[in-house]
Amino acid sequence: MASSRTLYCYSLIIISVLFTLSEATDFLVGGKINAWEIPSSPSDSLNGWAEENRFQIGDSLVWKFDGAKDSVLQVSRDDYLSCNTSNPIAAHKGGDVTVKLEESGPFYFISGAKGHCGNGQKLIVVVLSKGRRHFYGISPAPSPMEFEGPAIAPTSGASGLVVLRSGFSGALIVFLVGMVL
Ligand SMILES: *[C@@H]1O[C@H](CO)[C@@H](O)[C@H](O)[C@H]1NC(C)=O
Predict the structure, then answer these.
(1) Whether the predicted model's global pTM rises above the 0.85 cut
(2) Fold that domain 25-164 belongs to in CATH
């Protein structure tokens, strides 16, 4: 039979997990400032970075780059594939861009700088519905490549995940558990 202290401890963990579920994350695109550029090699592609992350409704993408040289265009799948910059869904300028991911499914982004998209400066982010990251965490995230069509080899880039706002819930759990033990 569990002691009341153990039950208290479990309830704190459950509260902390629920807190984690409600937490939105800001993802710095490419894991670093000025990552919004033509990739130096295919393994350096931003879609390699995107594959290593799990995006949920309510999370945000953050771009930091020289706004005088580039922009971020959110486009349709067709315009993503053909690198057509002439009819974006949204054009983000200024070099300090935040896009909140308000729905699940694929989001397509290309560079607004001439010729850059054709050289690989493009990004697909697939947003999962809320909670899926945690409750179905074992199943693989949908790959951006599934939304891009055939003939593109999956990348295995090991670029680091940088979450601007993270670790707080983990620290909270450790703190609360530490208090009752
Ligand atoms: C880009 O899209 C527009 C509208 O769909 C089309 O008129 C134009 O020809 C396209 N440009 C290229 C280069 O494909």
Answers:
(1) no
(2) Immunoglobulin-like (2.60.40)
